[in-house]
Amino acid sequence: MLNNIFFINIVRFLVLVLTQVLLLNHVDFLGYINPYIYILFIIVYPITGNKSLLIFISFLLGLTIDVFSDTGGIHAGAAVFIAYLRPFILKYSFGISYQYNTVKVSNAEFGQRLLYVVSMVFIHHLVLFLLEIFNVNHILLILKSTLFSGIFSTILILSAITIFSKKSK
Amino acid sequence: MQQILFFFIRNKNFLLFVLLFSTAVFLTIQSHSFHKNKIVNSSNYITGTIYSIKNNITGYFSLRNENNLLVEENARLRKHLEAYKELAISQSIDTNSLNYKYKFVSAKVINNSFSRTKNKLTINKGKQDSLTIDMGVITSKGIVGVIDNVSKKYATTQSILNTNSQINAKLKNSKHFGSLIWNTKEPNIVQLIDIPRLAPVKVGDTIITGGKSTIFPEGILIGSVLNFSQTEDKNSLVLNIQLFNDMTNLEHVFIIKNNDASEIKNLENNIENVE
């Protein structure tokens, strides 16, 4: 059982990285809008899983994307940021008892799931574009990119969760 | 002592986060300065190989276009050649013995970005093909960027669509010099700044490289003037340049190797040291 989860996570890591760098980094919708779907890994990571491990894996995940897209450390930074904030966002979206009643992201109520995904995506994108553009004078560009890419990513991530979740009935 | 230990155990997530986040910020800042991102770049073996595989597959889709480009360039070069035939002496020359100042290496773009503020390209030639940092990259239509990292088989290029890029360029007609920068707004429009206010500029004028650096030879095409305006202090002009290259579908590029680059660099360094 443990091996199974381990294996699933490795496959998920590789598939998400390759999808991101080979496909989604080249979408360039309207010239500059790209979805960042690789954070799905952090979003669907088991809620009761080891938190330090998640922060470390997120760093590796972000760094891998950075190596492929020559962006220094911006993805690593943004990924670590939401990995650290995840417990707080979980508490905020699923209520204080999320740890005990074994909520799964894929079969939670739609409203809660939407709130959780949207918070994760937008915080990630904001940090990402802040680090990428690295200039307060371009704050409008940062907010614009965050908004448009964020909407795009949220739609893709929600569909991916729906498509790949196992029917629990 | 025990309390310190407890402190670390209690806050281990926070400390890990701070450590990794600062590493990421450090890498980001480092990547903002040219030449310095030695660790995180796509010219390494694994990413290079994956991008090559992808390019082998997707490369077929643009073959027709690339062929047309090559035919066009052949035609243009043939025209040039005809012009030289008149001048050249009839005896045949051993081209190997000629002392060229510039050498050209052809390469293929295996990864290209143009939608960010600091865009990079990855090409499939590296140290093996005697590429080094600071060589210029062009296509048959115009300039593309400058090499900033090389590995054994691959190299990354800082595109002219990068806020760190600054290239010496001039007006073809009046020889006024300026710097070519990019304001991140449009992927095929760059800006030429520091052109004197009195320079005669017309919409449609051609912009070429200036040849004041060791990277690009003089006279490589860049683009044409789209429109221009004065800066706020009214001392110089800012020109919007429409690039001749379509930066969004680059495929085959040439790398320019300046044989005198090291000599010029040495000389300039010596002068700086004396000062």
Can you give a write-up of this model?
- The complex is a heterodimer of chains A (169) and B (275).
- Chain A has helices at residues 2-23, 40-44, 51-69, 74-94, 110-133, 139-164.
- Chain A has 169 residues and is mostly helical.
- Chain A has one domain (2-164).
- In chain A, α1 (2-23) runs parallel beside α3 (51-69), α3 (51-69) packs antiparallel against α4 and α5 (110-133) runs antiparallel to α6 (139-164).
- The radius of gyration of chain A is 16 Å and the shape is globular.
- In chain A, 43% of the residues are buried.
- The model of chain A has no long low-confidence stretch (mean pLDDT 86).
- By secondary structure, chain B is α+β, with helices and mostly antiparallel strands.
- The radius of gyration of chain B is 23 Å and the shape is globular.
- Chain B has helices at residues 2-10, 12-32, 45-58, 63-87, 261-274, and strands at 102-112, 118-123, 136-138, 143-150, 155-162, 167-171, 177-181, 189-196, 206-209, 221-230, 236-243, 252-258.
- Chain B is built from five helices and twelve strands.
- The mean pLDDT of chain B is 83.
- Chain B has a six-stranded antiparallel beta barrel.
- In chain B, a hairpin with a 4-residue loop joins β4 (143-150) and β5.
- Chain B folds into two domains: 45-88 and 98-163 and 250-258, Thrombin, subunit H (Beta Barrel); 167-248, Beta Barrel (Thrombin, subunit H).
- Chain B is 30% helix and 30% strand.
- Chains A and B meet through α1, α3, α4 and α5 of A and α2, α3 and β2 of B.
Give the H and E element order of chain B.
Answer: HHHHEEEEEEEEEEEEH
Biggest β-sheet strands, sense, barrel of chain B: 6 strands, antiparallel, barrel
In percent, how helical is the residue content of chain B? 25-40%
Poorly predicted regions of chain B are none
Q: Look at the helices and sheets of chain B and give the structural class.
A: alpha+beta
What is the terminal separation of chain A in angstroms?
A: 21 Å
